[in-house]
Amino acid sequence: MGLQSMTGFGRAAAEHQGAAIAWEIKSVNGKTLEARLRLPPGFERLEQPVRQAIQKRFSRGNVQAGLVLTRAAPAVQPVVNEALLAELAGLARRLEAEFGAAPATADGLLSLRGVLETPDGEESEEARAALDGTILAALDAALAALEAARREEGAALGGLLAGHLAAIEALTLRAEADPSREPAAIRARLSEQVALLLDAAQPLDEARLHMEAAFLATRADIREEIDRLKTHVASGRALLAAGGPAGRKLDFLSQEFNRESNTLCSKSNAASVTAIGLELKAVVDQFREQVQNLE
């Protein structure tokens, strides 16, 4: 399963017995999965299955789904109520015979209320279920298009993140190999600092001084930070290779990268290592910014 971005767009159209169906779905970044639906009046019954279809495919992102349904006006044929028409025709003949009323005309009789009936336009349960099935099938096609767009962008993000991990690894190795971390360089630097303190006007306990110097040397060691950075790089690569909804885990990993780069800078006792730490922080910021777009 590949990585997915949280941004994308999908569209699908279908037709059902003269009805034009069109879905448009887009998604943007979000901490959780949130679906906002725009359905035509009378189709509120589809809200639950639409939400379930979205939840089946995605785990994060703000998804907006809109359905447009256009139906041609049905050609409804009026039905003659023949029983009522016969009754009214008979009444008209009696009025003509008994009272000399004008004879009834066909158009006059047909214009009387109840003679011509328009069939009820309500859909049967079967017709409604068939329409709903076509609408949901079109929704599935639109969601598939959205998922494909998200995967395409997710693949591009994966390449960027892999590049950032490679840069973090290279900077870590530079810090590890920096000449300032050589034992001889550390001893020389501490010797200079101890000599300056011993030359101070106020007498100092030389044994205590060397103990403090050893403590400071231990505090300044960045071996643990380098080891953890290497481990985090390996974890990041494993997450990218596994794919799926890895955005939250990679975001947590970016926080760990940031913590280690901060510690490396604070422990540094050489300008070269500090420069590496600052460059590392910049790459970590770029890594975290891109991770925010992943599902």
- Which stretches are low in confidence, meaning pLDDT under 50 for 5 or more residues running? none
Rg to the nearest angstrom?
39 Å
Query: Strand tally, please?
Result: 6
Strand content bin: 5-15%
Count of helix runs: 9
User: Structural class, from helix and strand content?
Assistant: alpha+beta
C-alpha end-to-end distance: 12 Å
Mean pLDDT: 86
N-to-C order of helices and strands? EEEHEEHHEHHHHHH
Roughly what percent helix?
Answer: 55-70%
Biggest sheet, in brief? 4 strands, mixed
- Cross-sheet strand order for the largest sheet: 1-2-4-3
Label the overall shape.
rod-shaped
Could you explain how this protein is built, in words?
Helix content is about 60%, strand content about 15%. The chain has 9 helices and 6 strands; from the N terminus they run E-E-E-H-E-E-H-H-E-H-H-H-H-H-H. The strands form 2 sheets. The chain has a 4-stranded mixed beta sheet. Helix 1 runs parallel beside helix 4. It is rod-shaped and about 145 Å long.
Explain briefly what this protein structure is.
This protein has 295 residues and is an alpha+beta fold. It is built from nine helices and six strands, in the order βββαββααβαααααα. It starts with 7 loop residues before the first strand and ends with a helix.
Provide keyphrases for this structure.
single chain, alpha+beta, four-stranded mixed β-sheet, two-stranded antiparallel sheet
